């Protein structure tokens, strides 16, 4: 018999359907609640609200499980490439070799950016944060590909927009950095793979020969995989809600980039390194900083700790911590902030405040240390996150479209003034 939940409101009983996911997650379906009861639900920050049914990513925060289309993140990070994971997320299955070759070739064909977008880039002062520049350039594609605005675009048209998004993202990302440096931009070298192409555009200087270090390219590829999707987080929900108005893929993803920028979301990776540096300069007393994080009046949080969904180790953080060790030793880098991070983690994990609240290191805690070892500047950390998250945003935008989901429009409980009479300005 189908399960139901019972709600009693003003003495009247209502039966609500119960929905179960393929991993046995349970939801009470309130789709008809307002119509039947006249009441809405209230859930600040959507902590208990499922906004959609999705077949892309499964996450169990208590057990520390993350899977994409059924494949564990551990397997994907160890055995696949970023473009393979992108294909899996977007199209639902791991690609055959010819499918992946075609996908990769299609992307290569679109890595160049219209020269007029460079004029837009030139308008940004070098003080601009690369995330703002990235979001703007990404959205500017709507002007260069106006056909993308058609909400009834054919499947071939949507495929082209997907390929363009993936192809141009590394070019935009590298150019946003070049702009911040006041350097001339580099054009994509299509003899290289996705990650190496990005690195060359980021680092190459006009008068110097630049060879991509395969250790750096492989480490970055793994980091991108670890960021590729994370179900209905703040930026992905933003992409879905903007997309639900039938806005174009470029404007929906640009909105996601802006949502990711905040320090509580993707911006945390930049904040972690700034925090670790500040602790180092302050003498490295981790206990002092842990106490500051516990003091609600300090306004300080331990960046890279805690997660809305993971109440156990973030599985991505485990892989990243191991990767950080490997990358630092392969590159012969000795970063003093790694020792501070390890000590901070050790102190926090035996502190009752963090234990009771189930606060563990998240994906951002160690990623900044690897980015630094790879030579990626701090302002670019969140841009790296955006590059990694792009396939997830695309997959979620495509799913929303294919499922013909309604426009996203939450309700509210109004707490303002009741009706009052307007008083002319000279009588107030
Ligand atoms: N340091 C100190 N206390 C914390 C922290 C932290 N990093 N995170 C949460 N808490 C406390 C919080 O003060 C609250 O305490 P109390 O119950 O006494 O009021 C309790 O833990 C629950 O926190 P919350 O803010 O209600 O939890 P949330 O689910 O709304 O927030 C979070 C999740 C990730 C925004 C939060 O843990 C945080 O601000 N962490 C630091 C920023 C960060 O690392 N963000 C990256 C998240 S992972 C990458 C991504 O996907 O975006």
Q: How would you explain this protein's 3D organization?
A:
With 428 residues, the chain is mainly alpha-helical. The protein has two domains: 4-50, Rubrerythrin, domain 2; 70-407, Citrate Synthase, domain 1, CATH 1.10.580. The protein has 18 helices and six strands. It has a three-stranded antiparallel sheet. A three-stranded antiparallel sheet has the order 4-5-6. Strand 5 and strand 6 (71-72) form a beta hairpin. Helix 9 (214-226) packs antiparallel against helix 14 (315-331), helix 12 (268-281) packs across helix 15 (336-349) and helix 12 crosses helix 17. Carboxymethyl coenzyme *A (CMC) is lined by residues 45, 230, 233, 264-266, 268, 293, 301-308, 357, 359, 362-364. Residues 45, 230, 233, 264-266, 268, 293, 301-308, 357, 359, 362-364 line the site of carboxymethyl coenzyme *A.
Low-confidence stretches: none
In CATH, the architecture of the largest domain is: Orthogonal Bundle
Strand order of the largest sheet: 1-2-3
What is the overall silhouette? globular
